[in-house]
Design goal:
The chain is α+β, with helices and mostly antiparallel strands. The protein has helices at 15-25, 31-41, 93-107, 122-130, and strands spanning 5-9, 47-54, 57-68, 75-84, 110-115. A 5-stranded mixed β-sheet has the order 1-2-3-4-5. The mean pLDDT is 89.
């Protein structure tokens, strides 16, 4: 019988597991670099990294950044990374992370959530649509 999925804030003990998850997403990072990023975000109330755990095992993660809006009051919650361990995809872990993220963002004054997903990630697009996200605009980037 599967254990309940719990979501909590990431901590320094999660660095290795988060590095493995980020590698599965296509963003390999050394655990030391992940730890450095966690420490940089930890004092901020506008940033959070959530870990989905089953028992004590991390099986997914989501990073959220609250960006203040200038053109009106409030914030937009930007999901900058969301990944579920390969052997646990389509088990509802991602939906649990999204629900937790929504609650967290809403409680801090966010009026909407946004996520960017590469054109090649068609399964992710279907996941986001099932979880209430809609394509809205076109994003332009420039490498500096």
């Amino acid at each position: 019988m599967a254990r309940a999925i719990e979501v909590r804030l990431a901590n320094s003990d999660d660095a290795r597991a988060l590095a493995e998850l980020l590698a599965q997403l296509g963003y390999p990072s050394a655990p030391e670099r992940v730890l450095m990023r966690l420490r940089a975000l930890s004092p901020s109330d506008a940033d959070a990294v959530f870990v989905a755990v089953e028992g004590n095992t991390p099986i997914g993660m989501l990073s959220l950044h609250l960006v203040p809006l200038f053109h009106r009051d409030g914030f937009v919650g930007r999901i900058t990374a969301l990944v579920v361990r390969e052997d646990r995809r389509s088990d509802g872990v991602g939906a649990v992370l999204i629900q937790h993220c929504e609650h967290h963002a809403r409680a801090r004054g966010a009026e909407r959530l946004e996520v960017t997903s590469g054109d090649q990630r068609t399964r992710a697009h279907a996941f986001y649509t099932r979880n209430g996200f809609q394509p809205e605009s076109r994003r332009f980037t420039k490498t500096l």
